[in-house]
Amino acid sequence: MSYLKFDKNLMINLEQSLMKEMLRTNQSGAYHCTTVVDCNTRKQHGMLVIPMPEMGNTSHVLLSSLDATVIQHGAQFNLGLHRYSGGVYSPNGHKYIREFDCESVPRTTYRVGGVILTKEKTFISNENRILVKYTLVDAHSHTTLRFRPILAFRDANALCIANDALNTECLDAPNGISCCLYNGYPRLFMQFSRKPEWHYEPHWYNGFEYLKDLERGVPYTEDLWVPGYFDISIKKGESIIFSAGISEVQPRSLTKTYDMEIASRTRRTSFFNCLKNAVKQCYIKEPDGMYLISGYPWGKIIARNTFMALPGATIAIDHKDDFQAIMETARKALKHFMETGEKSDRILGIDLPDIPLWCIWALQQYTKAYGKEETVERYLDFIKEIIDYIIDGKHPDMHVDDNGLLFTEGTHKPVSWMNAAMNGHPIVPRSGYLVEFNALWYNALMYATNLVEDIEDMAGDCEKWVKIASKLKPSFIDTFLNGYGYLFDYVNGSYADPSVRPNMAVAIAMDYSPLDRRQRKGVLDVVTRELLTPKGLRTLSPKSFGYRPFYLGSPEEREMALHNGPARPWLFGFYADAYLRVFGMSGVGYLDRMLIGYEDEMTNGCIGSLSQLYDGNPPFSGRGAISHVTNVAEILRTLTTLKKFNM
To answer: Can you tell me the distance from the alpha carbon of 469 to that of 463, in angstroms, rounded to the nearest whole number?
Structure first.
């Protein structure tokens, strides 16, 4: 039985099926995303969505959808489904669905009378091309399939309105056509493995509605262009492959290409394999290097997410070479910033003060997996550069005080991962001594000391780092540990923020912590009692002022809630590390049980992945980006850690 299979009863129930989304990517930034019934509910949904570096480095929807119609004896049965103005669904093709299976590739089975038709979709790796395979499993009479492409040619975060500016010309291509609606876009080639009949019948389809955008309080209605339709006859047992891409393809190669792509897929037959598949979809391979995108459908390449997710996205799934490739690309960007002060156009946020700290944490995980000797050979010089850069006060937004603590100015702009802002000003103005910054800093110093302790030429550096750490340890305890047994979130002058937030979980999770085991346990107890949910740690305790558990409402309301209550799965990775440091082997069973809450999400939201955040109160619904690399990676890292304990 497939791990990700949905039957007729769920598929024809739109209240359930429209809430389940699926995502496929080409590991170069292009993606296909829609619901399991192929009804687009977000403006970012589409059959072929590609990155356009030359147009603001954003993604653009070229092919919104492809409606298929079964024709027998002159009767037409349209398998498509769209929501139009007023909440009207048409043409209700979901009623023909008998099963949806996503073990290897998304596979939908339709039944129309005596006709059984399957549809499978896959991306070509590192190419802006999607293939859709239709197979006529059974039919008792002559059958024709009609395909009607619905085009957008727009920014994935914008909407299209009927206009006269588009180019309606369609040019012949082998077994298909090509078109380009607006200047600046590449041509879209739509071709088949067998020659179809093309019928040019251009017109606008008006009033598409996107349910998720309606719920989010943002514009949600658009018009899309249909240039015509393809007709192609098909026999029982026969397959037809449709290709949509930005370059011409040889039709005779489509079947072989499709089979090769299918063979390379990780089958989603378990919780681990689902997460492995999801995290690999966030790989971005480009000529200048390899990256991690923060998520889909509107994610970007972000420095903090890259370093936070890197161990789980690579080491946890035994992709050592990918760790090295992604780290090398990020290293160049960070090194360039440290040397020149210039930001990266490709990796956003490389200039933020905690980025060097998260980079060292990621390298520490590499050391734990592959050993000290290899790390010293490959990364020691870089680690030393980072630590000296911080000690010498070269970062424009961070410096080391005499007490060894890191100070950063975050009153007027966000500096940490809690970066929600209104009119450019942080909603949570974390400034001064931030608890996770200083925990990461102490950990970095001690980790680096351990790396070089046997290297004679590094004795001076080792002594310097130990001296700072020895001042930092008591300062950390005096500054952050309060009389209630937990850690202040940040301290700025005479103000110590009493909000119970999950950043203290990061602090107690480090391999090297200023806190002893008893102090860690006291903090862990507070985190467990006030922040832990089945979907991660809340960003704020329900007992703290300003708690807003639900990520709902207008964009402003959602921004206010972003870090004031909703839970983040990635924080569970640090919670698990802290729990194991306190309880050891006896904590494994408890953490295994807690992971059930994340496995439940494999058939909710974006199937096989984890959302960006979850409401802080029951039923802990998924919100934000439908697939988030840091969440997926940290749960993968936790699974791998627990597996080692059980070996």
So the answer is: 10
Q: What single-letter DSSP state applies at residue 230? A: E
Q: What is the pLDDT of residue 646?
A: 74
Vertex 297, ends 295 and 301: CA angle to 5°? 40
Torsion of CA 522, 528, 531, 532, to 10 degrees: 160
What angle (nearest 5°) sits at the alpha carbon of residue 413, between those of residues 410 and 416?
60
Q: Cα–Cα distance between 623 and 631 in angstroms, integer?
A: 13
Cβ-Cβ contacts under 8 Å for 462 (sequence gap 6 or more): 449, 452, 453, 455
- What is the distance between the alpha carbons of residues 318 and 432, in angstroms, rounded to a whole number? 39
Cα 342 to Cα 338: distance, rounded to the nearest angstrom: 8
- Cross-strand pairs, 199: 229
Using DSSP's 3-state secondary structure scheme, residue 511 falls into coil
Q: Where are the alpha helices (DSSP H) in 281-371?
A: 303-314, 320-340, 355-370
Reported in sequence order, the residue ranges of 359-469 that DSSP labels E, i.e. its strands, are 398-400, 406-408, 421-422, 425-426, 433-434
| CA nearest to 617, candidates 510, 533, 517, 498 | 533
The pLDDT tens digits of the residues spanning 132-162 come to 999 999 999 999 999 999 999 999 999 999 9
Question: pLDDT over 90 for what percent of the chain?
Answer: 96
What pLDDT is stored for residue 263 in this prediction?
A: 86
Q: Which residues contact 359 (CB under 8 A, 6 or more apart)?
A: 307, 330, 331, 334, 386
pTM, two decimal places: 0.96
- Rounded CA-CA distance 118/138 in Å is 10
Q: What is the pLDDT confidence band of residue 126, given thresholds at 50, 70 and 90?
A: confident
CA distance 449 to 458: 9
Tokens describing residue 100: 């949806």
Distance CA(211)–CA(17), nearest Å, equals: 13
Distance CA 407, CA 33 (A): 42
Environment class of residue 277 by beta-carbon count within 10 Å: exposed (0-12), middle (13-18) or buried (19+)? buried
Closest CA to 14 of 83, 102, 86, 109: 83
What six digits make up the tokens of 84?
A: 């139009």
pLDDT digits (tens, 9 = 90+) for 30-83: 999 999 999 999 999 999 999 998 887 799 999 999 999 999 999 999 999 999
Radius of gyration of the chain (CA): 26
pLDDT the model gives residue 2:
63
Report the b/e string of 338-355 with b at 16+ CB within 10 A. beeeebbebbbbbbbbbb
Q: Please, how many CA atoms are within 13 Å of residue 172, restricted to the half-sphere of its CB?
A: 5
Q: How far apart are CA 174 and CA 191, in angstroms?
A: 7
Give the model's pLDDT for residue 1. 41
Beta carbons within 8 Å of 266's beta carbon, 6+ residues apart? 273, 276, 277, 280
